[in-house]
Structure formats: C-alpha cells, structure tokens
Amino acid sequence: MIRLALGVLVVxxxxxxxxxxxxxxxxxxxxxxxxxFGTTAAAAILLLGLVSLLAVVFWRVVLFVVEAxxxxxxxxAEARRRQAADVITRGFLAVAAGDGAEARRLAQKAxxxxxDAPLLVRVxxxxxxxxxxxxxxxxxxxxxxxxxxETRLAGRRGLMLLAESAGDREAALSHAADALTQDRTxxxxxxxxxxxxxxxxxxxEALELVxxxxxxxxxxxxxxVRARAALLAALAAELERASDPRARxxxxxxxxxxxxxxxxxxxxxxxxxxxxxxxxxLGRAEEVIEQAWATAPHPALWLGYRDLRTDETPRERAxxxxxxxxxxxxxxxxxxxxxxQALLAQDKAATKAAVTALAEESPTAxxxxxxxxxxxxxxxxxxxxxxxxxxxxxxxEPDWSDLDPEGRAFAYAQSDWTRLVSTWAETGVLLHxxxxxxxxxxxxxxxxxxxYEASAPFLARPEAxxxxxxxxxxxFDDDLAGPPETAPAAAPAPRRRRRPARKDG
Length: 505
Known about the structure:
This protein is mostly helical. It has 22 helices and 2 strands. Among the domains are: 2-30 and 39-66; 84-182. 63% of the residues lie in helices and 2% in strands. The chain is elongated.
C-alpha cells in the first residue's frame, strides 16, 4: 500500500510540474462552514498527495500494532515447527544409527511438540521401538498406523517384517496379501508372496502371481517371460516324477512351453527333448535342442541330443552331431563338440584340428579328459596319461556340474529349483548348485590303463584291443586303438664291482 501511495505522489508531482510549465498555476479553494481556504492548483495537488501518504503510513502503523499479538503467535508456531522437524530428523538418524534409546526419547519428545506431523511421529515411534528391540511396542505402533490411509501400507509392511522375524510365516504372508489388496503396485508385498510360493515349491501359484505382477506392472515383461519359463520347467520336473500318465502329458506341455519361452534356460529344452523322445516325437525333440543350442549351448544339450537315437552307428551319430554344431559354430561348446564329433567319426585329422582349435582355452578337468581321449586315439599313450594327471588337479566347469555322476541333467531337489527359478527370473543367470556345493558330477576323465608304454620310435608296437571311452561305448574302431599294455621288462641286475686283491707287505 505504501508503494501505491508513493506512486500516486509521483503522479501528482508530474501534474504540478506540468501546471508550472504551462504558465497558469490555476486556483483551488476549499470552503467548510465559515472557514475558507484558497491556494494554487499545484499547491493543492501537492498537499493532497502529502495527506494521502501520511494517511497510508498512519494506517500501516495502526495495523502493525493491532496484528502484533497474532504475528508473535505465528512466529512461535514457526519456531515450534522447526524444533519438531529437527527432533524428528534426529530421531530418524538415531534409528538409522541403531541407537534405540535415543530414538525412543526423541520420538516421545516429537509426539509432544510435533502436532502438525502426527503421521511422521507414528512412523518414528514404530521404528524407534524396533531399534530398541521392543517388538510389542513396535507392533502396537504399526497397528496404529493402519488407521490412517496414508500410513496403512507402511504399517502392513512393518507388521509383516515383525511376523517374519518372529517366525510366524502365516501372519507375514497374511499382511503381505492384505497390502497387495490395498495397493495394486505394492512390489514388496508381491515379492514376499512370490518368494513364499517358491520356497514351498508351489509352482502353479507362483505362475499366477507372475501373471498378476505383469498385469499390475510390478514386473517387466522380460522378467515375467523368464519367470514363466523357469517355473514351467520346475513344474515339468515335478510332474515327470509322477506315475500318472496325465501328469506326464502335462509335463511335456509345460517343458515345451518353457523351452519356447526361454531357450537359454537349459533345463527347459533338456527336459522337453527327453519327454518328447519318450513320447516318440524324436523330430520335435531334436528341433527343441537345436533351437536352444543356437541361443545358449550347454553340455547337457548335446549329450541329450546324442542319446536321442540309439539305433545308429558311430559315424551316423557323428553326422547328426554336426547339424548341432552348425547351429552355433563359433561357441566354445560347439568347438568342444567338434572334438567329440571327430572322435566318433574316427577322423584323426579332424580330431587334431578340433583339439588345436581349443588350444587357447584354459585346461579345465573336462578339457583335459577330452584331450586325453584325443591323444589316446592318436596313439600317444604317454600324452594321454599326462593330460589325465593334469586334469586331476584342474578346475571343474560350472555347466558340466549340472550332470550328476549318473549322467542325469539338472536332477536337482526342490530347494535347488527354488534358487534356479528365482535367480533366472531376476537376472537371467543359470545357477549351478552342484558346482557351488562341490559335489561330484559326471566323470570327465577317462579311465586309462595305469602302465606306461615305451614311446621310442624304433620300437615296434604290437596290436592291442581298441580303447573304449567310458561315455560312449563303441565309438572307436580298431584302427584308432591305443597302444597295448605290456608288462614292463625286468631291469637287469646290477653288476657287483670286483675288489682289487690285497698285497702282502
């Protein structure tokens, strides 16, 4: 208002200057009762402006005096709010630092002064009680939070965590279910329910939760696809062990869907091909493995592919394995399979070339066993035994550990499937539980005779029976037979040194 009065005064000054410049100052008069006042127009304008300015200043002074008590009250309230905010902040910092006693003291003080932030005070009180290791007080505080729509979800989560810490799984899941009903996008509640389904092996219920999470945009489409594929594979593994024929039919459908959704998840294609082969659908079984090999080769895939047909010669099997190699020729597993294929085809030149292609690879136990078999097929018995000795100390391969000592692929318990599903759904990484536990896997070192053979080139090598690799009997013919096992020649007895005769003095 003072600015407005000053503006009016400036306008009046401009008018006075304009009148002065015109040469006619004009006249202004005021008559009131018997009193008469007269002056020039310019002076009257200036006087009117001055009176207006004084009136405005007087009015502002009056208002300042009148509003002084209210202004003091507002300042006190603002100071109180600042103090409450400071107390609440220090309370949450105490909770984060784990100082339960200080957090509870500050929470109690905040409840007395923070009248404008009751919701924050409730949250602080609950977390302070947890930090002070007082579950009863924390539960009471979280239950109070259920009365307000703004803190209801936080109260449910707090009650769920308290129930989990107390070992009451049913109550925890009940709170999670209620939270998911109240808030369609409560990610933590969905995850708690999903992990509970995985822990109990409830694969069907977990599949329903995946659909729910996708429809509510809790999970991304990529995560949903991976989760479905892993869950369908786990369900197929469970149904495969059932004696009911209808269950096995369902297992086939689930495994095929898993392989189609995520061919990189090796358990799905391996199981689908096995079940399809049992159903007499060898062509489809081969297609499933070929598609999976083109995406992410795994040793269980080519072993399953190799054993799909049992009525073929080693050379015919080698030709069929070549089709699998051609699906992803640049992959490490394809280069390893090329050695196996060359050994089956009894092609010494191809075997040597395939082994050379793996020269840059780190010598794992599996590769050492493969190189030993290749050396034995080439007739280098000492080199083969050297590779076996080296393989005994070499590290294993995670993928190879998925084959148990009997050659079964992904024969895991329900707890292992839980980890497989959870990790694959979230990250797309295939875990190897047997490798983590350092359990025995399918043997990767062939059993060669333990006797060394003379390897000098001028010694003749007599004929010997063919060496049969343990994982594929009948793979070699006599022309690839290894060196014979002959008893070592007896070492000649050391000659005694004759002592000189003593001379008599």
